[in-house]
Amino acid sequence: MLETSVLATYFFVLCILALYGWHRYFLIYLYRKHPPPSVPGPESLLDPLPRVTVQLPLYNEMYVVDRLVDAVCALEYPRDRLEIQVLDDSTDETRDIAELAVRRHAAQGMNIKYLHRTNRTGFKAGALEVGLERAEGDLVAIFDADFVPLPDFLQRTLSHFADPNVGMVQARWGHINADYSLLTRVQAIMLDGHFVLEHGSRNRWGCFFNFNGTAGVWRRATIEDAGGWQHDTLTEDLDLSYRAQLRGWRFVFLEDVVAPAELPVEMNGFKSQQHRWAKGSVQNCRKLLPRVLAADLPFKVKLEAFMHLTANFNYPLMVVLCILMFPAMYVRYNMGWHEMMLIDVPLFLAATASIVSFYTFSQRQLYTDWRTRLKYVPFLLSIGIGLSINNVRAVVEGLFDKESGEFTRTPKYGVERTTDDWIGKKYHQNMLVQPALEVVLGLYFTAAVFYALANQIYGTLPFLLLFQFGYLYTGLLSLVQQFGGDDMPLTTQVAGE
Predict the structure, then answer these.
(1) Identified catalytic residue from 88, 144, 237, 344
(2) SS3 of residue 112 by DSSP
(3) Fewer CB in 10 Å around end: N or C, the chain?
(4) What strands lie across the sheet with 216-219, from one edge to the other?
(5) Residue 256 dihedral angles phi and psi, to the nearest 5°
(6) SS3 52
(7) H or E stretch at 114
(8) What is the Cα gyration radius of the chain?
(9) H helices of 261-298, where?
(10) CA–CA separation, 404 and 276 (whole Å)
(11) Spatial contact of 220 and 139, defined as CB atoms under 8 Å apart
(12) How far apart are CA 21 and CA 355, in angstroms?
């Protein structure tokens, strides 16, 4: 009875994961089938040019604030139509650096203002809300501290607002430091897949997609019509996006407009970012999915919204799968594992091969050297698995905590080149229990690997090795970066080939 229960649960979890895997194939199909949104011609240029407010929300960003302000002040747009707001909630030296940067550019004739809050009510959403109350612009562009927008960003995005139904235009994120390490390489591929296939496919098919919190431009009237910035979730961008599209506003994703940004180089910083995104997504699932399903919307919009907002529930299933893999393998071996493999391997392939296809397609779409990038996809699979403990905690908190809690920022260190160093800088984040649990799971899968080898169950080895490496890498890198001092070999340029 116990053996049957183990196998039944194991295959049930695999079936659900395989379903989301097949959905990735569907996104590829949609992307290939539907053309991208048309680019407005010269006749669509806005006349007169609208007033634009660029908002720069900051919180303790001393290493990147100068770079951000300099880049935004270099945007090619008439100065009499451009306003820049530095929305600084910082509590450290960032305040002085940011204020000096504002004064420097104001002396050169820029319409740039420094706004500092001593009360961080609402965190980023609260800062954007306060800034919007004082904003002069009809259009509002937003850039986080780790971004370096190119001078032609506004020129390439604003023409889409000639359509009065367009409420937001989102650019694709680029990567300043993708070559820094294995971790940054994997993040870059993850983000490329998210933008190209999730945003691209949904936008092409006429479904909802979300503003990513930065590197986008909003119509001010859209924000106000949708109810403004709200801070009852950790992903205020996703929240406002769905509320605006429920109101009938149309969003545009521009794959060819790229806003470069710095990727997190520290494992704990990366984990906190993923935790925040996962928790906020679950909070918004609880808040918004009932509204979407009850709204008068086409079935395809509801289906994609459901797949989008529930995607993070895969992480608890992944942990259940982890726990059951070894017992299921043991039971299969004693029951005649050859027959069970006929079900096991196809389900695993549906869940994992779809990820390979998903990210391979996005790399092929974006880069001429895409083949050289594919060697990192297995590591992406492993690190995605390794994040499951981190993101299960986020899912549980998102489901049961009504309050969003403290906003944990992602540290930025101004790392752009492989020779740049971040050791010894401020903003490091500490974790202990979670990395230790990840290492334990890594050792658990190490034992499973040896068991499979000893019993010649070779078909399961590729999957076991993915889980083994993923948990050991995410757990050990977190611990080494916290306690390794100046000797941290796992942060060197392992990807800079």
Answers:
(1) 237
(2) strand
(3) N
(4) 112-116, 82-88, 52-58, 139-142, 216-219, 166-175, 250-261
(5) -85, -5
(6) strand
(7) strand 112-116
(8) 23
(9) 267-294
(10) 10
(11) yes
(12) 7
Separation between Cα atoms, residue 291 and residue 50, nearest integer Å: 33
**Which is catalytic among the residues 89, 144, 192, 239?**
89
* 167 secondary structure, DSSP code: E
**Strand 139-142 relative to strand 216-219, pairing:** antiparallel
Residue matched to tokens 């993070």: 312
Peptide bond into 462 cis (omega under 30): no
What one-letter code names the amino acid at 277? W
Strand partners, 83: 53
**Tokens at 395, concatenated:** 């899912």
Residue 207 · residue 301 · CB < 8 Å: yes
What rounded mean pLDDT belongs to the chain?
90
In this prediction the pTM is: 0.92
Percent pLDDT > 90 in the chain is 72
* Whole-number Å distance between alpha carbons of 289 and 362: 28
Instruction: Please say if 89 is a catalytic residue.
Output: yes
CB half-sphere exposure, 494, CA atoms < 13 A: 15
Task: Compute how many other C-beta atoms are within 10 angstroms of the C-beta atom of residue 447.
Answer: 12
Q: Where are the alpha helices (DSSP H) in 311-424?
A: 314-335, 337-366, 370-373, 377-386, 388-400
Contact 410, 429 (CB under 8 A): no
Residues facing 140 on adjacent strands: 53, 218
Strands 216-219 and 112-116: unpaired
| CB neighbours of residue 322 within 10 Å | 20
Q: What is the pLDDT of residues 92-116, one digit of tens each?
A: 999 999 999 999 999 999 999 999 9
- Please report the sign of the dihedral spanned by the C-alpha atoms of residue 234, residue 246, residue 174, residue 56: negative
The two structure tokens encoding residue 389: 């403990």
Predicted local confidence at residue 41, as pLDDT: 58
Give yes or no: 144 in active site: no
Cα–Cα–Cα angle for 206, 290, 225, rounded to 5 degrees: 65
C-alpha span between 192 and 201 (Å, rounded) = 13
Give residue for tokens 């690190």.
Answer: 383
Distance (Å, whole) CA 109 – CA 354: 52
Beta strands 82-88 and 112-116 are: parallel
